[in-house]
Design a protein that fits this description.
245 residues, mainly beta, six-stranded mixed beta sheet, four-stranded antiparallel beta sheet, rod-shaped, disordered N terminus
């Protein structure tokens, strides 16, 4: 899902100034896939030797990335979190004064979700634009637990998802003698292996005598504002494993 976000900041000092900055970023992006955040800008010819481009992350006053085209030194990474993931050789444009305007983030994970701001300045003016980017992590495992055919006292059905980011929307739907019920009462806690991710679950108490073998259970997990969605469905009673002789 590619969102073209055009945010224009215009500040005029006479008629000679950086006039616009335009961001092209994905609103949501899958973790592990290379991420490109592009920052196009317009400027006056006499500003060419003055241009200074900076990228900022999550409102920090300290930039994560800086490029001064006239110095011919190439871009610099300032934030330690980005040092191992930014490709400084990436060129977004063939024009010398625009070639290193973009961030090329290799193998991003959930830490790279947040607000990105690009600011371009000259000696006489500056303009900036910003946008939110979600780097989402699909669950490493989804488990749907049905009833056992041998259950003869109140027990539960449940849906569990491990290692997901950001917090998803989860819905557990089941039938009791063909009447449909639903629950979105989600419990969540940090993932044990990676506290930046979440483990989520829904658990519902069920009396086996209220259901029949034709009843069903399903679980749907979606991450808002992304393309990720998964749905699992099974009979409300687990099928017994067949024995081999």
């Amino acid at each position: 899902m590619l969102v073209q976000a055009v945010l224009i900041s215009t500040f005029c000092i006479g008629a000679q100034s950086v006039s616009t900055v335009t961001l092209a970023t994905p609103g949501a992006h899958a973790a592990g896939e290379e991420l490109i955040l592009d920052c196009d800008f317009e400027f006056e010819e006499q500003e060419a030797s003055q241009l200074d481009l900076k990228w900022y992350f999550n409102g920090s006053p300290v930039p994560i990335y800086q490029w001064v085209p006239a110095l011919d030194l190439g871009p610099q990474v300032i934030d330690p979190m980005f040092k191992d993931n930014l490709d400084l050789k990436y060129q977004a444009h063939s024009e010398k004064l625009k070639k290193h305007r973009a961030l090329h983030i290799m193998n991003p994970d959930e830490r790279f979700s947040g607000n990105y701001k690009c600011k371009v300045s000259s000696f006489v003016d500056e303009a900036s634009a910003e946008n939110e980017v979600i780097v989402y992590v699909p669950p490493s495992q989804v488990v749907l637990n049905a009833l056992r055919i041998t259950d003869n006292e109140p027990t539960n059905i449940s849906c569990h998802a491990s290692g997901i980011f950001p917090l998803p929307q989860v819905s557990l739907v089941w039938t009791e003698n063909s009447t449909v019920f639903t629950s979105d009462n989600v419990e969540y806690h940090p993932n044990y292996a990676n506290p930046g991710l979440f483990d989520v679950s829904i658990t519902v108490d069920i009396d086996p005598f209220d259901v029949v073998q034709q009843d069903m259970i399903s679980c749907e997990i979606t991450i808002q504002d992304t393309e990720f969605s998964v749905r699992m469905e099974t009979e409300i009673f687990e099928k017994p494993e067949s024995s081999q002789t």
